[in-house]
Amino acid sequence: MAFLGATLNTVGLIFLTHAVYSTHEHTATFPHAPLPLDITIELLVSILVLSAGIVLTSPSLKPIEWARWSGKLQREGRHGEGKWTREGEEILSEGDPYAFLGLDGGIGGKGEGRMGFWDVRGKRKEYAEWARSGGKN
């Protein structure tokens, strides 16, 4: 699929370049005449071919449920991506990109979950216990 996508991208880019050049030549030669139909069709075909090539060469999509995706990243930890630097070192994934949020202490955990967010229900429960005890710590 990668070869087919790269081929479609190349062909689409060539068609797009030719359509843009033809449009420039036409408007420079005949400034007030409408654009010919063949240039318009070439432009639309090039966009469709380029779009198909981009879709075929794009990486796999991440799941919409971020908790599942983040959990998978957290379980796997740092791993190689199959990419290398010029110096010959493998580029490693950083693992969970949402680790800074502190979500592991959230639902079912002991902490408030997300740093910077306030657990309203927990604070209401604490206040109710404080009020029942007569305002003493």
Automatic annotation (TrEMBL):
<keyword id="KW-0472">Membrane</keyword>
<dbReference type="Pfam" id="PF10270">
    <property type="entry name" value="MMgT"/>
</dbReference>
<feature type="transmembrane region" description="Helical">
    <location>
        <begin position="43"/>
        <end position="61"/>
    </location>
</feature>
<keyword id="KW-1133">Transmembrane helix</keyword>
<dbReference type="GO" id="GO:0034975">
    <property type="term" value="P:protein folding in endoplasmic reticulum"/>
</dbReference>
<dbReference type="InterPro" id="IPR053279">
    <property type="entry name" value="EMC_subunit"/>
</dbReference>
<dbReference type="InterPro" id="IPR018937">
    <property type="entry name" value="MMgT"/>
</dbReference>
<comment type="similarity">
    <text>Belongs to the membrane magnesium transporter (TC 1.A.67) family.</text>
</comment>
<protein>
    <recommendedName>
        <fullName>Magnesium transporter</fullName>
    </recommendedName>
</protein>
<keyword id="KW-0812">Transmembrane</keyword>
<dbReference type="GO" id="GO:0072546">
    <property type="term" value="C:EMC complex"/>
</dbReference>
